[in-house]
Amino acid sequence: MSEPAHYPLTRPRRMRRDDFSRRMMRENRLAADDLIYPVFVLEGRGRREAVASMPGVERLSIDLLVERATEAAQLGIPALALFPVTPPEHKSLDATEAYNPEGLAQRAVRALKSAVPELGIVTDVALDPFTSHGQDGLLDDSGYVLNDETVEVLVRQALSHAEAGAEVVAPSDMMDGRIGRIREALEAAGHIHTRILAYSAKYASAFYGPFRDAVGSAANLGKGSKSTYQMDPGNGDEALRETALDIAEGADMVMVKPGLPYLDIVRRVKETFAMPTFVYHVSGEYAMLKAAAQNGWLDERACVLETLLSMKRAGADGILTYYAMDAARWLRETR
Ligand SMILES: NCc1[nH]cc(CCC(=O)O)c1CC(=O)O
Ligand SMILES: [Mg+2]
Fold it and tell me: Which CATH number is 28-332's, of 3.90.1150.10, 3.90.1010.20, 2.60.40.3500, 3.20.20.70?
């Protein structure tokens, strides 16, 4: 009774035969701990506004945001990323509203920290919600985004966030040298515990379109491009050089953005630096999944969870996603 020689000795399908052995060999899992929930905050009370290009996503006034944040914490989500919707009358060429201690972001941080202290708050350090032209920095006469002058404003903005109680500041602007300057300023001001989540490899991506609608910077930006500071989608090695600089300057965590089209970069960054590595599943990626789901073309729950799991498999330690609340709920239910 000899083995038929043409039969494989190794049958990978054995381990896939039953649910128990599939679970035993599963290498990566998604959990609520992996999720960071990006939210848009509005002026006023009792206000909620839908974002047309992101069905299911709402801009909320601080009081409603506090309720939402309470739910997020109950679902086990560790942190929220805050994005203010600046009223047009507070936008200017010099973006001074960015570091107003009574600004919307700063007030939202204080309200969230007092109502839901266990939920980590990540603030966005960048000037685009505050400039009248929608660029992430100050402009010279030719319209070029100035680096060092912008960094000085980012430092003031980051300090105002730390002062308000944000545990994590996340520079998303891609100016050179800003991590080092922010780190020095935080230390000098005694904010030695404030973590920096650096958007280290942020690409000049068309997938940010719906976000710019959500924060109301799309109209200001018009046809303007961010290619003189955000990275060229054709580049991979440059992402490693950018990340190395941010780590050397004092970043505690690094990020790649967008997500799904850039998972090769996530893998390379994680393998090269072994740092806490985050990925941003951006607004356009959310919109794609949502649109297909609304048309009945994709199983939303299955495709979203598969997408987020693939980000973990690529090496991400955490994911910023507009699907955070849904995903945390889905992960609680047993199929
Ligand atoms: N500093 C701006 C910023 N911070 C986060 C996003 C995009 C997030 C998303 O698309 O979900 C952007 C947009 C941009 O760079 O134009
Ligand atoms: Mg850089």
Answer: 3.20.20.70
In this prediction, does ipTM exceed 0.90? Answer: yes
Query: Is a pLDDT exceeding 70 seen at residue 1?
Result: no
- Binding residue per annotation — 242? yes
What's the token pair of residue 126? Answer: 């960048």
Q: What is the pTM of this model?
A: 0.96
Residues with beta carbon < 5 A to ion ligand 2? Answer: 242
Q: Which residues line ligand 1 (CB under 6 A)?
A: 124, 126, 128, 136, 172-173, 208, 211-212, 226, 282-283
State the ligand closest to the CA atom of 251: 2
- Between CA 281 and CA 259 the distance in angstroms is 5
